[in-house]
Amino acid sequence: MDRFLFLVGTGVARGTVTALFALSLVLIWRAARIVNFAAGAMAVVTAYVAVGVAHATGGWWWGALAGVVAGGLLGWLVERGVMRFATTPLGGVILAIGLVMVLQSALGILVGPQYVPVAPPVSDRPWTVAGVPLGSPYDVLTVAVALGLMLGLRLLFTRTTLGLQLRASAFAPEVSRLLGVRVARMRTVAWVLASAVAALAALLLLPTELGLNPHATDVLFVLAFTVAVVGGLDSPGGALVAGLGVGVLMSLVTGYLGASATPIAVLALLVVVLLVRPQGLVAGVEARRA
Amino acid sequence: MSRLLPARPVPRTLVVALLGALAAVAGTFLLDPYRNYQLALVAAFLCATAGLTVLVGLSGQLSLGHSALMAAGGYGYALTSNAVPDAPAVVRFVVALVGAAVLSGAVGLLLGLAGARLHGPYLAGLTLTLVVALPAIATTVPGLGGDQGVRVGLEPVPDALDRLVALEQWQAWVAILVTSAVLAALHVVVRGRTGLRWRAVRDDETAAALAGVAPGRLKVLAFVVSSVAAGLGGAVLCFVTQSVTPGGYGLATSLLLLVAVVVGGLGSLAGAAVGAALVVLLPWLVGTLVDALPVPSELAQRLDGNLALLVFGLLLVVLMAAAPTGVVGAWRTARARRAARRRAGPGGTHPSAPGPSAPAREDVTAGSPLSGTESEA
């Protein structure tokens, strides 16, 4: 029972981070109808920037700030430099894959394949309540940062003019353009926001993993993709709920069956969800096609 | 030349495949053993790229997991071959090939049912998950041998040919034989009724459904056909290298296959051949180049493998931005344009007829899901 509670606690923390990463996929999917298959590789690049700055300045928070800024910049570069050539959804995926190859192999050449350990900014030793280990200060920090960021994004999307324009250009690009919304610019803004969010999510996850390596986010990406699909791909709220559910599930699988079972569990979950409820948990009404 | 061949499509394809295989077999006499080994690898990868190019170019679906399907074929081959150690060599090989096709087809069917019926990026994400999960599957499922994989015995050169050919050349022959069979089968399917329906579904699912074509079923079928082709490629690779390991079929291999079909031109089997040759030869060329460069050994170790991926990634991005129909597609467009100019030249008979004409109508890449303009009526 102790172990179960501990695993659930860790699962909630990791699930929130996964949800945050999935949220970045959802943001780009809503804005551009592209699943950003390069999200993992982009997040690894920003994580290297963050860890480098953190080592140079000695402050984790400076590193995090640098990572988020680098994430935004990289999102801008990728959207303007590469993704605008995507004329079809298939072309978008292929371009993203090309980007994955370029980023990961360039990192492999620059920094090599060895793992760089990443220390958490606060203690990651779990508190024990009545002898039961529950969660660490780092888990609390993770959940707080992730939830705070999601709340901030929600406010941005629902309470500001920029948010209104973002939603309008995602919902009806043609009409928005007629009404004077710069749809192409909104798409760029969405990419910048999403990449910054993904950078922070990857950074929050790294201290609980083996360390930083050019392939450190591969599993995070497929996990986040699964979460986004379970949540409905179009719904930020669905991503949060699915992230928590999948996070706890994967934590239990890892805890009871071992770490090597996690990717198989993700695959099985994805297959089952796609077979049973492909539109996701939170799905809008599909447009009429015929 | 074309008058000498049978006019009906299926016999014609078979004759062309047989002639091609004979030419390739004759070509192996000109190559040294290492080149023959590379030729066998190209043939094995050609099965996978041909399957993938049909999937992407004709049915408009993307798989990022074809290396895992190759691995499924390799495991199917190895496990079946090890299960019948006492059978005669030919029987064992054929039974093992069937095992490879069955296993990769079953995996393809399961994934296809889950991901291929849907519209959108689901199949790509699902197959990516499969590749990422492959090492874990190999360690968890009993009998797959973990990171070490499964080994199979060497199939030696038959006694009758022992004097004539070396082992590598014999392996290249077998690889060429299997690959030409796979290519011929794919070609027959692509040019036939099923290929036509795939293209209809790719271009407009709703219109295809209204015309009585079941889009979901056809997309799943396309993925299964493509999986079996990749699985047979994996089986050939296992036959040549005598082992199958999860490390050999990682994400990098999967993405290389995608580059190969994009470079060759989506939907084009000839392009798949160009792509397969590139996938085998470019890493080798880059490796040779790095070895020749006077760089420190640590840097050389990092460059090895990564540099080829970097080149491929840049190639993929530049090609997708500049020439989405690939090398073969660009060549065909240029040829069609030249032909149109020639016809329109003296007299200018049909100045009002724009776009690709007769040669492009035959072209399976016309109206590819990437070119934006759907020129196929």
UniProtKB/TrEMBL annotation, chain A:
Belongs to the binding-protein-dependent transport system permease family. LivHM subfamily. Keywords: Amino-acid transport, Cell membrane, Membrane, Transmembrane, Transmembrane helix, Transport. This is Branched-chain amino acid ABC transporter permease. It comes from the Bacteria. It is found in: Cell membrane. GO terms for biological process: amino acid transport. One of its GO terms (molecular function) is transmembrane transporter activity. It is a multi-pass membrane protein. InterPro entries: ABC_transp_permease, BCAA_transport_permease. The chain crosses the membrane at residues 6-27, 34-54, 60-78, 90-116, 136-157, 188-206. GO terms for cellular component: plasma membrane.
Automatic annotation (TrEMBL), chain B:
One of its GO terms (molecular function) is branched-chain amino acid transmembrane transporter activity. The keyword Transmembrane helix applies. CDD domains: TM_PBP1_LivM_like. Residues 339-377 are annotated as: Disordered. This is Branched-chain amino acid ABC transporter permease. The gene is livM. It is found in: Cell membrane. Pfam families: BPD_transp_2. The chain crosses the membrane at residues 12-31, 37-58, 90-111, 123-144, 170-190, 220-242, 248-266, 273-295, 307-331. GO terms for cellular component: plasma membrane. Residues 368-377 have a biased composition (Polar residues). Keywords: Cell membrane, Membrane, Transmembrane, Transmembrane helix. It comes from Cellulomonas biazotea. It is a multi-pass membrane protein. Its main location: membrane.
